[in-house]
Structure to design on (358 residues):
């Protein structure tokens, strides 16, 4: 297990702050991806906002699987060194003279999309996500354009709000835009331990769907029964899909999956006529086997989904506020223990989001 190393560095500031700009000489702690497999807490200069930007003092941040993929070199466009982290909640400490001063002092969350572009259906070629290659939220401060800021939903604590942005946005697009889930639909969410999955579960429940979940952990499934899952199955067991379809009383109208891999064909078998299988990740493997007639005879769909556009981000925050949705937090720990959260994610122990209090 990697040890946390606290290290002062004299190197140039990184990422967003490595421009020709006035550097605030104060330092901050930040989780830096130094090179492949090497993350460590470093003391780096506090970034200074440029035109249109704000400096946020982070209160809480959260991990996503992309942070762990980045750590192990399995994310496209990696840049070393970089400060990781796409999710955060904090207070606007200052904004550049050219930006909207009314943000100062407000408690905010940040839309992690960078340059989605003009077409709501797909992201532009210039698209990226806060926290790679731009410096992210696993730090005491982050700089971000003010048009990425949203007021923190009033019913959430800073830790709960920090859990929201990336995972809830991904789940929102997958459930509503791509899955087109409707009240009373039978919805299956796989790998419920995951951060995105737990939001997909909560959104579909709030919509009035019957929601069924899988996990590789019986303990997580027991907890989900207590949380309102309408049926559960362990994907490590043989023919788990038959048991789940029986519990549901029929095949699923919508399936939300990020597992892929060998289990994917069982999902295709469990899809209802005209049903939709939405896939946004491949944690268990990106190569799958499919019997195509299942799709053409059943008039069924497979749809890929990635993150969500800025309108979906706003709609997601509104939905969370309207339905008083509270993110499921697996654990909370201080910034100086952040590496252990990566290890927990790598081992798949979590049920919900891994939050870092800063
Ligand atoms: N396309 C996008 O925009 C987008 C956005 C976010 C995430 N993702 C991807 O989606 C995946 C999940 O992300 P996350 O941040 O939610 O990760 P996470 O919190 O680390 O969750 C990963 C979960 O995957 C589940 N899993 C592992 N093996 C599985 C299998 N064989 N079948 C089904 N589920 C399995 C586990 O659930 P159990 O513990 O319950 O077994 C685990 O909790 C990652 O691959 C990530 O890169 C994509």
């Amino acid at each position: 297990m990697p040890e946390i190393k606290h290290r002062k560095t004299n190197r140039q500031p990184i990422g967003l702050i490595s421009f020709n700009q006035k550097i605030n000489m104060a330092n901050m702690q930040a989780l830096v991806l130094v090179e492949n497999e090497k993350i460590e807490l470093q003391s780096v200069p506090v970034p200074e906002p440029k035109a249109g930007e704000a400096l946020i003092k982070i209160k809480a941040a959260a991990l996503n699987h992309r942070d762990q993929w980045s750590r192990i070199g399995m994310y496209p466009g990696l840049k070393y060194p970089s400060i990781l982290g796409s999710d955060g909640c904090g207070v606007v400490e200052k904004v550049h003279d050219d930006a909207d001063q009314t943000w100062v002092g407000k408690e905010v969350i940040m839309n992690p999309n960078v340059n989605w572009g003009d077409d709501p259906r797909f992201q532009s070629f210039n698209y990226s996500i806060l926290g790679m290659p731009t410096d992210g939220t696993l730090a005491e401060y982050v700089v971000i354009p003010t048009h990425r800021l949203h007021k923190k939903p009033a019913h959430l604590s800073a830790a709960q709000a920090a859990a929201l942005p990336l995972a809830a946005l991904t789940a929102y697009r997958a459930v509503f835009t791509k899955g087109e889930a409707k009240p009373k639909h039978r919805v299956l969410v796989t790998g419920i331990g995951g951060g995105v999955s737990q939001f997909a579960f909560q959104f579909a429940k709030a919509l009035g769907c019957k929601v069924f979940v899988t996990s590789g952990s019986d303990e997580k499934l027991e907890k989900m029964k207590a949380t309102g899952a309408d049926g559960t199955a362990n994907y490590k067991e043989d023919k788990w899909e038959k048991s789940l379809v029986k519990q549901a009383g029929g095949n699923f109208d919508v399936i939300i999956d990020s597992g892929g891999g060998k289990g994917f064909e069982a999902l295709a078998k469990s899809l209802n006529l005209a049903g939709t299988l939405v896939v946004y990740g491949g944690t268990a493997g990106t190569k799958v086997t499919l019997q195509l007639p299942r799709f053409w005879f059943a008039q069924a769909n497979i749809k890929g989904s990635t993150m969500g556009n800025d309108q979906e981000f706003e709609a997601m925050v509104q939905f969370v506020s309207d339905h008083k949705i509270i993110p499921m937090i697996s654990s909370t720990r201080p910034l100086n223990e952040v590496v252990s959260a990566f290890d927990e994610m790598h081992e798949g122990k979590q049920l919900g989001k891994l939050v870092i209090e800063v």
User: Anything to note?
Assistant: The pocket of NAP is lined by residues 64-66, 69, 167, 170, 190-197, 215-217, 220, 235, 258-259, 261, 263, 280-281, 283-284, 306-307, 345, 348, 350 (CB under 6 Å).
